[in-house]
């Protein structure tokens, strides 16, 4: 009887310890190199840095373990109207499958949320993080 109580107590303590651990952090994107921001469109009559919230803004290309991700966001009066994927991982067939699955979902979620604060797509962690970072850099340019 004593062994059963000790075993139950030990297992309970182990379960509590495991539940208390923080979830695994995503590894840093491989070779993420900050690059100078680029804007593909500046409305006439405004100078760079003027908050317009209208135009197409190209995000930084983000290098991930599986390839580069880059997006361009089109805003109208500060609202995201469309997002175009300019670069996506495509080194292998599996990379293309993952991108084809994840990128439309990320785009749909970003337009719905009207921000880059969106959830990653399961099974496409690196692509999702690259997409989110590139979109955020485009939105930063739009509001700069």
Outline of the structure:
With 144 residues, this protein is of the alpha+beta class.
What can you see in these coordinates?
There is one protein chain. It contains three helices and four strands, in the order αββββαα. The chain is of the alpha+beta class and 144 residues long. Strands 1, 2, 3 and 4 form a four-stranded antiparallel beta sheet that branches. α2 packs across α3 (125-142). It starts with a helix and ends with a helix.
Rough shape? elongated
Number of strands: 4
- Give the termini separation: 69 Å
Mean pLDDT over the full residue set = 79
DSSP strand content: 15-25%
User: What is the tally of helical segments?
Assistant: 3
Q: What structural class is derived from the secondary structure elements?
A: alpha+beta
Rg result: 21 Å
Low-pLDDT segments: 24-51
Q: Indicate the multimeric state.
A: single chain
Helix and strand sequence: HEEEEHH
Question: Which properties best describe this structure?
Answer:
40% helix; alpha+beta; 144 residues
Please specify the SSE layout and strand pairing.
Elements: H1 2-20, E1 55-58, E2 62-64, E3 67-76, E4 79-87, H2 93-113, H3 125-142
Antiparallel strand pairs: 1-3, 2-3, 3-4
Helix pairs in contact: 2-3
